[in-house]
Structure formats: structure tokens, C-alpha cells
Specification:
Length: about 190
């Protein structure tokens, strides 16, 4: 996993928001490892170079799931099973991020002129997380359980990430900040 210490304040904010949204109704997903994974995903994907980190053999940035799938296939472009796993994990992250945090972008990502036009991001995300979860050897053992859970709970996680986004958007609202400050004064 990537070292996210430089992003600690941002990661703490995401941890608070993810905990608040996922721990309570209507979601009630209380798997600590999955929630930490989602915090890390949000933290990593604050940088565009992490969202679009995959490259083909020529070094060209891969921006569409269809292209990523070609890089994940050992019979086509994947040079190893390690690459296959990492690409499928990234496809799961990529599709979960867009379907959850910015679903309005799907209209552009799946525009009829794009290769992703016929790809169902939810189904492909679930499938890719599942494929990545089948690599259970050594260093991947712990994460394989998390990826399998993300595959099974993809829609719930997507919905929850959308609620997390709504929460952080509220934080910019001056009225919301006044209410939260008053609440903190009342609690404290």
C-alpha cells in the first residue's frame, strides 16, 4: 500500500466523514478494514496522477476502463500475474470512486464516442475487485478479504461515498459551519 503520511490531515478528515456515514443508518457497514481502505482510496484519489496512474507499455496514460482491462489480461498486455492483480484492483478503485464520489462524471466517461460507452462501471468494478481478491498468497492475503468485501458491497460503498461527498460539500457552507460550531460549544 502507498504511504499516505504526507496527507495525514486530509486522511483524518476522510476517516471522520467515512466513519460518520458508514457506521450509522442507512448504511451501517462497520468493517473497520473496509472503512480504512475507503479513507485511503479517497486520500489517494485527491491527486489526478493517482486516479490515472496506469500506463501502457509505451508509457501512455490509461484513462478508460476498456484500456485498463487490456492491460490486466495476461493473454493480451499484462506482463505478469502481479500486474493483472494490480490493474484489476485499480479498476475496482477507479469505478468505485467515479460511481460513488462523482457519478455525474459517468455521462462523460461513458460518452458514446468513448471506449467505455458499453461498460457498466458498477458491474466491472465488482468483477475487478473480485478478480483481484482471488490473489491470496503472501503479501496479498490480508487485502484479498477487503477486496472481496468491496466486490460484494460495491453498491453500498458507492452510495456511502456519495454521502461522504455530500458531507464534505456541506462543510463549505457557512450556515453548516455555524451550526457545527454551536454544536461543538454545546457538547464541550
Amino acid at each position: 500500500m502507498e504511504d499516505l503520511r504526507a496527507y495525514q490531515p486530509l486522511r483524518q478528515l476522510f476517516a471522520e466523514l467515512v466513519g460518520r456515514v458508514f457506521w450509522n443508518k442507512p448504511i451501517e457497514l462497520r468493517d473497520r478494514e473496509v472503512l480504512l481502505y475507503l479513507c485511503d482510496l479517497l486520500t489517494r484519489f485527491t491527486r489526478m496522477d493517482r486516479i490515472y496512474r496506469l500506463r501502457d507499455a509505451r508509457g501512455r496514460r490509461l484513462e478508460e476502463v476498456a484500456e485498463m482491462l487490456m492491460e490486466a489480461d495476461v493473454l493480451l498486455n499484462a506482463r505478469s500475474f502481479h500486474q493483472e492483480r494490480e490493474v484489476h484492483k485499480h479498476i475496482g478503485d477507479f469505478t468505485l470512486f467515479w460511481t460513488g464520489v462523482y457519478p455525474e462524471a459517468l455521462r462523460l466517461l461513458r460518452h458514446p464516442t468513448r471506449k467505455d460507452h458499453l461498460i457498466d462501471y458498477v458491474q466491472q468494478g465488482k468483477r475487478s475487485y473480485y478478480i483481484a481478491s482471488t490473489f491470496e498468497e503472501g503479501e496479498w492475503r490480508k487485502e484479498s478479504r477487503i477486496l472481496r468485501r468491496l466486490s460484494h458491497e460495491f453498491e453500498i460503498c458507492s452510495f456511502g461515498l456519495n454521502l461522504v461527498r455530500r458531507e464534505w460539500e456541506k462543510m463549505g457552507d457557512p450556515t453548516y459551519r455555524l451550526i457545527m460550531e454551536a454544536f461543538e460549544d454545546w457538547e464541550g
